[in-house]
Amino acid sequence: MIALQRARSADEYVDWVKQARFEVQDLRNCLLYDMEDIDERGMFPAFIDPLEQGVNQVYEAMCNGEYSFGREDLPFLEIAESHADQIPFMLLLRQINETHRKGLDVVDVEEEN
What we know:
Elements: H1 10-34, H2 40-43, H3 48-63, H4 77-82, H5 90-102, H6 109-112
Helix pairs in contact: 1-3, 1-5
């Protein structure tokens, strides 16, 4: 398995989470558009709500200064992985989770010289 890229700065990490929020909403909108002639309640994928809630919780914790990195997977990852084939931005979610678990990929200035 290829090593996942981790965010190199707090700003990049926040941008990734913002992008994930956009992607989840975009996926929801695409599914709604595709199903406009179908009863949405019967056909809407069950993973969308918990995925959206999970990504939003991470973002809100960041905004409130309550976010902290951890060693465990983010709560939304399990449901996302079980539906990975339906989530076009799964790599982004995995990178967010990898950064959450292992911290920022900060380059040591002495290593660059």
